[in-house]
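User:
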Amino acid sequence: MKKMYLVIASILWASASHALVEKRAVVRDSNFNAVIEEVAMPDLTSDHSYEGKFFRIVQGKNEEAVRFDDSEDLQLKAATTYYHLNKARKFFSEVINSSYVQNLPQITIRLDLTNVFNELGHFANDNLDPQYNNALSVPGGLGYAPRNIKPWGTEIWFRPSKEINIKDFKGVADFGGSVKNSLATFRKQTHMANLQQFIIAMYGSSVGGNVPVSSVMRLVGTSVVLEVLFQTSDLAAEFFTRKIYRLDSALVPEIIYHEFSHVALSDHLELSHSTPVNEGLADYFAGKISDSKKLATKIKDYNLFSGKEVRNKQQYRLAFERGDFANSDFVFGLLWNVGETVGTDIESHFVYDMTEKLSTNTSIKEDLINATLETCKKECKSPFNDRLRLYKLYNSKNL
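Assistant: Predicted structure:
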């Protein structure tokens, strides 16, 4: 009996010691600025690495978790992703009460991985189209025994940052004009397409010779992240004043929330497809997980859908159904307004429950709209009146 008590005591002590571990991570302060603070690392199962009950943070292709005695830069990325992933998971498992998220197995999180994802081989060849400045969630795979490729589960990859100087673009002319004007143009373009298309349109189709822009210049396809970067940080100003672009996605909380949201919705929406509806849903939940009044205000003030700080309110166009517009903020703005229409007390649950009626290649005009109307029948406090309000919203957007 005494031995049993000792075992129980040791387990409780180990659990407590893991729960008390604090590490330096990037978080948002009350003004929504990025700061580095000591924060608790919840649900760790190791006393020397970022190995946890729900997430294992590794570097590159390694399978061993990042250690507490690794470099400070690597630890900062590991601690930041670990902390915010657990925050995102808690939102879906406790606030939304998602049984799917509650039963997810441990997820491997890869930092500083430049390889392209391969559906059969997990990692593409190291020399094939190395990736920087972005992040993505990848579906699990069966592996390929003849080549000793083991099966893998759902993973999230955060690429390393890489400085890209504007002077390396062919046919570059000076930006000209004020930084403010440049930022306004930049933001408008990124919401309608993406950074890659914007750079191609302004500076030509290649970087540093014959290397395609797509191989080195991509941005996370999320409108909420764009709003955070452009409205609450110096990143965009630095881009235009110093002519340098870089993005360390593992250090941006909203990118982390966005990627986990993809995983949380992957029971209905496949991770291998980036569509306007998929990205808009991930944007919506990233905004909700961040739980910032300042971010919510900026979303309402600046997104092109609402039209509060721009002259033209964005109307639905058939082109918005294409993958080229995956990171347009139309769906994001639509969902934000749907949430406010049905009521802020149920909006997050409403949008989540609505996803059960969606599939990977769902359309905006038919599938998404019908899903909201059907969900409203069951969950709205005043189903008839609220559906009329939704119809009015959709009619104002040419839907």
